[in-house]
Amino acid sequence: MVGDTIAAIATPIGDGGIGIVRLSGPDVKAVVNKMFRPRYKGNIEEWSTHTLHLGLVIHPDNGRVIDEVLLAWMQGPRTYTTEDVAEFHCHGGSVPLRETFEAVLRAGTRPAMPGEFAKRAFLGGRLDLAQAEAIIDVVQAKTSEGLGVAVAQLAGGLSQRVGKISQMLLGVIAHLEAVIDFPEEDLPPVIEESLKKTLEETVGDLKSLIRTARTGRVLREGWRTVIIGRPNVGKSSLLNTLLDEQRAIVTELPGTTRDAIEEMIDLGGIPLKLVDTAGIRETDDVIERIGVEKSLAYVEKADLVLLMLDGSELLTSDDLRLLELLGNRPAIVLINKIDLPQQRLDREQLGEYVAGQPVIPVSVKENKGLEALTGAIRQLVFGGDNGQVKANAGLDLVASRQEMVTRVRHKEALERALAYIESGLTGLSAGAEADFLTIDLRGAWEALGEITGETVDGAVLDRIFAEFCIGK
């Protein structure tokens, strides 16, 4: 295993109930003996593993008392990193935490690099790479549904699915290579139809996983959702209602919003990066025109567009321009102000411009129709699930979404594996020799191994773990 002992502050700096300094490595016992004085009898050589001990942190150079702490002692390999681990649970203030950390360094450790604790857990075999990546997804989860998916991946759901496919490929490769290397042996022949069926089933499995990537990315990163419409249709009011606070200024004067306002919200378990834009219309006002141009730029980058119309008025040329702008992009049309008489808006004319996007009547003022909006967004995100997954998913989500792909890296590896297997199927149909088939199948196996870490190189590992915070 790794030869040195590392340490890091594992909790945010600042006032709080507790602050933790974490150590891992072969010299943990020696470091603890240098700087911890237990309140009661005994020492780390006598303590049982996974126990807490009250005592004083002593500076190793001069014996100065720094803090009274609880020391958590965990002996490897049954620890997070598979090494010896200790944690000083200090009083939650920046000074005692910082001085304890400095004392730990003086006692014979070095500062941990970002993600180094998780990297040691991976190198020690406690986690595979997909599980290690799930740690940061748990920390950064934006909604309960995103957390459920991350926890399921941490438990190994995705890894197990990928592992089954990898093992199947290895079995086929081993059989093919035995046929190639030992033609004189009485080995069972490769049955073309059986091999074709196996590979076609694998193609189906990989496509099924790849299809989850869009939803998985949304749950992990959030959807950039842009609210557009001409001035005074209720865009800023919708933002304030969804946020449940007066984030945007709302007046009767058109053009109040001159610049975009961005906020992250949890809408029915879906993380949305909500953007309220300036009203889009033809204008001679230089400043307002700049705001309109920025609004149009936001639309081009949006994952989802919410187009608001005023249901109490006729469709204007500005409305029609925005409807044409939608095209086939993911969008929901909101007909606002249904609390007012609706005789004027021509629904038949509207239907000529809507290319299958949901149309939802709402009254932001009276808080009507917003549940339908939430349902429509969930439908767009979950697709085949029909938005029926519970918002507070908990264990249900772990069971139903434990094999979801959430990272671009994983999706790209699955797509490469799929391409290799499809190439192998093409070769099989063309009568290719066994040695050519093994090239494609081994390429697929190596691509899948990049997800779990079996075939990934050191540079990729360093890049992945560099995303982690220090102390993880």
Q: What would a concise description of this structure say?
A:
The protein has 472 residues and is α/β, with parallel strands linked by helices. It is built from 17 helices and 13 strands.
Question: CATH H level of the largest domain: which superfamily?
Answer: P-loop containing nucleotide triphosphate hydrolases
Question: How would a crystallographer describe the biggest sheet?
Answer: 7 strands, mixed
Give the strand line-up of the largest sheet: 3-4-5-6-2-1-7
Number of strands: 13
CATH class of the largest domain: Alpha Beta
How far the N terminus sits from the C terminus, by CA atoms, comes to: 18 Å
- How many DSSP H or I helices? 17
Binned, the helix content reads 40-55%
Q: Mean of residue pLDDT?
A: 84
- Percent strand equals 15-25%
Instruction: Supply the CATH architecture of the largest domain.
Output: 3-Layer(aba) Sandwich
Low-confidence stretches: 248-258, 384-400
Q: Globular, elongated, flat, extended or rod-shaped: what is the shape?
A: flat
Q: C-alpha Rg, in Å?
A: 29 Å
Structural class: alpha/beta
Secondary-structure blueprint of this entry?
Elements: E1 6-9, E2 18-24, H1 28-35, E3 36-38, E4 51-58, E5 65-74, E6 85-91, H2 94-106, E7 110-111, H3 116-123, H4 129-139, H5 144-154, H6 157-181, H7 192-211, H8 213-221, E8 223-228, H9 235-243, E9 261-267, E10 270-276, H10 286-301, E11 304-310, H11 317-326, E12 331-336, H12 347-351, E13 359-361, H13 370-382, H14 394-400, H15 408-429, H16 434-452, H17 458-465
Parallel strand pairs: 1-7, 8-10, 8-11, 11-12, 12-13
Antiparallel strand pairs: 1-2, 2-6, 3-4, 4-5, 5-6, 9-10
Helix pairs in contact: 4-5, 5-14, 6-16, 7-15, 15-16
